[in-house]
Write a structure and sequence with these properties.
single chain, 115 residues, mainly beta, seven-stranded mixed sheet, four-stranded antiparallel sheet, 11 strands, 0% helix
Length: 115
């Protein structure tokens, strides 16, 4: 069964950068529509918001909040999805999840932005 494992989160000062990774097992990333979602503090699972996506044709979308300061990419050889976020803001704080076809989810990695 397809499995996803995120890493790379942490506590970062505002203005800093992070690169999140999501290792995909049992399936090739080049055949999937992959998303990064953020669940802000105090919000429920159903309130997760899509922040970036890349599909099997490498079409990319970003949420307005990340447009211009983030990059989603994937390593088709090692089946890893990435999300680079620069110039981090307090509003970027939350649990970040990767999802495949919006059906398979990882356990998440926490990002906390502080002053």
């Amino acid at each position: 069964q397809l499995k996803l494992l995120e890493s790379g989160g942490g506590a970062v000062q505002a203005g800093g950068s992070l690169k999140l990774s999501c290792v995909v097992s049992e399936f090739s990333v080049d055949r999937l529509c992959l998303h990064w979602f953020r669940q802000p503090p105090g919000k429920e699972r159903k309130e997760r918001e899509m922040v970036a996506s890349i599909d099997a044709l490498n079409r990319i979308r970003y949420a307005d909040s990340l447009e211009g300061r983030s990059t989603i990419s994937k390593d088709n050889v090692n089946d890893i999805l990435y999300l680079q976020i620069d110039d981090l803001e307090f509003g970027d704080t939350g649990m970040y999840y990767c999802a495949a076809d919006v059906s398979f989810w990882g356990q998440g990695t926490q990002v906390t932005v502080s002053s």
